[in-house]
Amino acid sequence: IFIDNYLTTLPMKKGLSSSAAVCVLTVRCFDAVYGLGLTVEQVMELAYLGEMYTPSRCGRMDQCVAIGEGIGVMEFSGGSCSLRRLFCQSPLYFVVADLNSSKDT
Predict the structure, then answer these.
(1) Which terminus has fewer CB within 10 Å in the chain: N or C?
(2) pLDDT tens for residues 75-92?
């Protein structure tokens, strides 16, 4: 599997979990190519373990991008993390702002 990130439009070091998204993408590529049948929790765990080999040193919550669309609740117990989906009856609105500050992740 070869991933070529030839164009990046996300701002670097802003805490947007873009490195976690790449790790989740990589795990999902292996899952699709090799038919591993990974659960969302397994994708999150493997993405986290993979990212721990990089300078990013992310936290466990960054891999929540594995849920895709929707909202999820992450529950932590010891060293493990589980995820379950929430379903909302009304729309939720979010504001994302660039504060022109850096974050050292």
Answers:
(1) N
(2) 888 877 777 888 888 888
